[in-house]
UniProtKB/TrEMBL annotation:
Residues 1-21 form the signal peptide. Residues 232-329 form the Fibronectin type-III domain. GO terms for molecular function: heparin binding. GO terms for cellular component: extracellular region. This is Protein NDNF. It comes from Mesitornis unicolor. It is found in: Secreted. The keyword Signal applies.
Length: 559
């Protein structure tokens, strides 16, 4: 590389600093040579490496230049330059400085200083721009390089600080750093559902040639498409999420941040990045070129980008992104409630959807009754579109509401557990005819450990001020059945679901004084060292039973 070519390209601050350092000593031949050597060392860091990807950081409105020349001894050679913007649009150009016949470095006859001045004046006229681009797409320039030419790449960002990657190569025989895209790089949307979108794309030639080293990665978000994997990484980071060093490759769970969720199933790796600006999903699915994106939100527009990634070089190429809007969720079915009628609703815990009930009031005062049979549920009640009650339900719950004739009430029920839940619902305007019996303060059954024998146990429970019927049932169970029996119990089922042999007795009692509304019962004829499950059913005037909480008691093994 001829040192005389540098003078035209020196940035002012580098040139000034070098001159100040040089002016300290007299301009001897050795100091002049040292000055030129120092300048060359400065610029050596700005010479692009052949066959390697270089990251270039740009400051706003400050151009940055990189250089490259052909190897000595090669007259002409093809070369390619690929520039990948990682954020905002940038401007970049390729300029070439070609030497004239008398310019390779030998001085013509005459005064040496005059000749140097003449050459420095001619230099600008020998610079030409061979390529210029402005935008944020990945662009590749292909050309022929000459050993008598110096090439300069100039980059400029006018929006904000950013970075780009640059790949220069003169070797066209050893394959591609970047995976190849097919002739048609579009992503096709072949199916749209309420919560899914199915995509397909044509195979990359690189996948067909080097299947074990190539994979496809899909990026899903709600903002816009990305033209490179580098741009996607930058956008996700700027939104407040931290990413592993490489989006597609560094998918180790040890590198995940707290706001990332990794899912691995069926040879498919997914990372969900959560931030205030939305959710970004990354799915790497090997070499499959058809994929159905699950768990999307209804009536939402999503943007899809597919990247083909070289696992050996960490380089990637982007297909042309696409977008699709999921279908609107169908209007929920609404069931009409009739005054005084009891219905039982089973709620799917997996889908977590609301079950809708509607009632038009025929009186100003009404009462909703909910009896939880299994699981846990959320109840939300609106009157003419305005919320009047919303809470989780356990056991038996009443809502007494006032309004106007023909007010419309909408009841929404949802399971709060992953397992199914069920509940009985009634709405009535007849307060004097209660559906359920008057309940005690607690539905717990108490057992007395000191009163246990090898063949009997003593239990107690609370009653009410209203004379009611109480029926006791028992059932033998094993140790490993206790949890399942207690969890799966249907609290709405009555004695009709029990075997006749399980019935112990029925009794009536009440007490005007609630402090004394307690009864006990000795259950005899039991086996020693055996676990028993006890249930008590309370019957009111309507005949609908209320089941107390089951109690497990074990008789003594030795007496």
């Amino acid at each position: 590389l001829k040192m005389s070519w540098f003078w035209f390209y020196l940035p002012l601050h580098v040139f000034t600093a070098a001159c100040l350092c040089h002016s300290i000593k007299s301009p001897t031949a050795s100091s002049q040579q040292s000055f030129k050597t120092n300048l060359f060392n400065i610029y050596r860091s700005l010479i692009l490496a052949d066959g390697k990807e270089t990251t270039v950081h740009l400051l706003k409105d400050i151009p940055k230049r990189y250089y490259f020349v052909l190897e000595e001894g090669r007259a002409l050679a093809p070369f390619t330059i690929t520039v990948t913007p990682c954020d905002v649009p940038i401007e970049w150009s390729i300029l070439v400085h070609r030497a004239s016949a008398s310019f390779p470095g030998k001085a013509a006859p005459g005064d040496h200083d005059t000749q140097e001045t003449s050459k420095s004046q001619k230099a600008p006229s020998m610079v030409s721009t061979i390529f210029n681009y402005k935008g944020n797409s990945v662009e590749t320039y292909m050309g022929m390089s000459s050993h008598s030419a110096l090439y300069m790449l100039e980059f400029l960002s006018t929006e904000r600080d950013t970075h780009v990657t640059v790949y220069l190569t003169t070797d066209t025989t050893s394959g591609h750093l970047y995976p190849e895209l097919p002739m048609d790089p579009r992503i096709d949307v072949v199916g749209i559902g309420h919560t899914t979108v199915t995509l397909t794309w044509k195979h990359s030639p690189s996948v067909l040639q080097h299947k074990e080293n190539i994979q496809y990665c899909l990026l899903v978000n709600e903002k816009h498409n990305y033209k490179s994997l580098c741009a996607a990484e930058t956008a996700i980071r700027s939104s407040g999420m931290k990413l592993p060093p490489t989006l597609a490759l560094s998918l180790s769970p040890y590198l995940l941040e707290p706001q990332q969720v990794m899912i691995l199933s069926n040879r498919e790796l997914s990372i969900i990045n959560k931030a205030s600006t939305g959710e970004v999903r990354q799915i790497c699915m090997g070499t499959r070129n058809t994929y159905t994106v699950p768990n999307l939100s209804p009536s939402t527009q999503y943007y899809f980008d597919v990247f083909v990634v070289n696992l050996l070089t960490n380089a990637s190429a982007a297909y042309t992104g696409t977008f699709a809007r999921t279908l609107e969720e169908p209007e929920p079915k609404v069931m009409e409630l009739k005054d005084g009628k009891v219905i039982q609703v089973v709620l799917d815990g997996k889908e977590q959807k609301f079950y809708n009930l509607q009632y038009q009031a025929m009186h100003k005062k009404i009462q909703f009754t909910f009896q939880l049979c299994r699981g846990q549920i959320r109840v939300h009640i609106t009157k003419n579109g305005k919320t009047v009650a919303s809470e989780n339900i356990s056991g038996l719950r009443y809502f007494s509401l006032k309004g106007k004739l023909l007010d419309t009430y909408l009841v929404q029920l949802r399971s709060t557990e992953e397992s199914n839940s069920s509940v009985k619902v009634q709405v009535s305007s007849h307060f004097h005819k209660p559906l359920f019996p008057l309940l005690p303060e607690s539905l717990k059954i108490k057992s007395f450990s000191k009163l246990r024998t090898c063949s009997s146990v003593t239990i107690a429970w609370l009653g009410t001020q209203e004379e009611s019927k109480y029926c006791i049932y028992k059932k033998k169970i094993e140790e490993d059945q206790v949890w399942m029996e207690l969890q799966s119990a249907d609290r709405c089922s009555g004695p009709e679901s029990r075997h006749k042999s399980e019935k112990v007795l029925c009794k009536y009692f009440y007490d005007i004084n609630l402090q004394r509304a307690v009864t006990t019962e000795i259950i005899k004829g039991l086996d020693a060292g055996t676990l028993y499950l006890f249930d008590i059913y309370l019957f009111g005037p309507s005949g609908i039973p209320i089941r107390y909480h089951s109690k497990v008691v074990k008789t003594r093994k030795k007496c």
